[in-house]
TrEMBL record:
Bilayer disposition of the protein: Multi-pass membrane protein
InterPro entries with a match to the protein in the record: MCP_dom_sf, MCP_transmembrane, Mito_Metabolite_Transporter
Family stated for the protein in its record: Belongs to the mitochondrial carrier (TC 2.A.29) family.
Residues making up the signal peptide according to the UniProt record: none
Assigned GO CC terms: membrane
Keyword ATP-binding found: no
Subcellular location: Membrane
Protein name according to UniProt: Mitochondrial carrier
Repeat region (Solcar), residues: 29-117, 129-227, 236-321
Record's keyword terms, sorted: Membrane, Repeat, Transmembrane, Transmembrane helix, Transport
Length: 327
């Protein structure tokens, strides 16, 4: 009976030892550095991909028939540059940076913490390299990150939207205040909770999208990287990071785009045309058809593809500079 407690290989023994001591030895140091590395790398990725993100949001907010030329990404981008100026492609940059610190810092920066913690809590019953453990860890990290970052995400969408008479927001803090007032005014009997609910409008769609995106992006990157290394196809390095991130970017774009469309519509709904996420889904299905859930997919893929490549390569590079082992 005693032999059942012995791990089968030296490598497994090392994994168990590292997991059991991680909370005390690296919880306060390496996990904190991983959070910082995740935040910085994703801020860099968002800075690069912000113009594509703005065009994607503009496409998703259009309620016209899917496939019309006026909603093609090159048409939207050209119209923005011509009528609003090239700088309009940088709309929402400050809100985007705030969002990445919280959202990506938590969803990517705490992924390995939850992975190690769940493995230790399960007593090794969940394989360290198994997909189940990865999905569970990514789900927990993404849920926390998406919820906490919802106000910044909402402000980003509002500041990236099109306004015929010019943006009503002077800066990101003015946007927060305006969103708060919307809710406080509509719920005069409870202005505080009304304002708070307004900042968290669309949080259900945001959280679902965060879970879908993170599990498909982080887990696919982790799994592809692990598989390529185990089979001896590629070794640790930028080539492996690029290959794994290319696959992860495509996969998470396909899975998250429908939820992203709903999230953007609900967050930008100042007139409260939608009663909530379910009503928004119903409205899109009835009035625009199922293909409307893939509005902006080209730009979503371009944005998430670029974002995924830059963020993971930067994340791995920063880890190396900080003396942390590769993901």
């Amino acid at each position: 009976m005693a032999s059942r407690t012995v791990t089968s290989t030296p490598e497994e023994k090392l994994v168990v030892l590292e997991s059991s001591t991680s909370a005390s030895s690296q919880g306060g140091s390496q996990y904190g550095l991983k959070f910082a590395a995740a935040a910085v790398s994703n801020m860099a990725a968002s800075a690069v991909s912000n113009p594509v993100d703005v065009i994607k949001v503009r496409q998703q907010l259009k309620t016209a028939t899917p496939g019309i030329r006026g909603n093609a990404f090159w048409t939207v981008g050209y119209q923005m540059a011509r009528t609003e100026g090239v700088l309009s492609l940088g709309s929402g940059m400050t809100a985007s940076m705030m969002r990445e610190v919280v959202y990506s810092g938590l969803r990517l920066g705490t992924y390995e913490y939850f992975k190690d913690s769940l493995y230790t809590a399960a007593g090794g019953s969940l394989p360290k390299e198994g997909l189940t453990l990865k999905v569970l860890a990514a789900t927990i990290a993404a849920t926390i990150g998406s919820f906490v970052a919802n106000p910044a995400d909402l402000a980003k969408v509002r500041m990236q939207a099109y306004y015929p008479n010019g943006s009503p927001y002077r800066n990101v803090f003015n946007c927060y205040a305006a969103v708060w007032r919307e809710g406080a005014t509509k719920e005069a009997s409870s202005p505080f909770w009304g304002g708070l609910r307004s900042l968290y409008r669309g949080v259900d769609a945001t959280t679902v999208r965060g879970i879908i995106l993170s599990t498909s992006q982080i887990c696919s990157y982790d799994q592809v990287k692990q598989s390529l290394k185990k089979r001896g196809i590629m070794e640790e390095g930028i080539g492996l990071h690029l290959t794994a991130s290319l696959f992860a970017g495509l996969f998470c774009s396909i899975t998250s785009n429908p939820v992203d469309v709903v999230k953007v519509r609900v967050m930008n709904d100042k007139e409260r045309r939608y009663k909530g996420v379910v009503d928004c889904v119903r409205s899109i299905m009835v009035n625009e058809g199922p293909l409307a859930f893939f509005k902006g997919f080209g730009m979503c893929w371009a944005r998430l593809g670029v974002h995924t490549i830059v963020s993971f390569i930067a994340f791995e590079r920063i880890r190396g500079l900080l003396g942390i082992s590769p993901m």
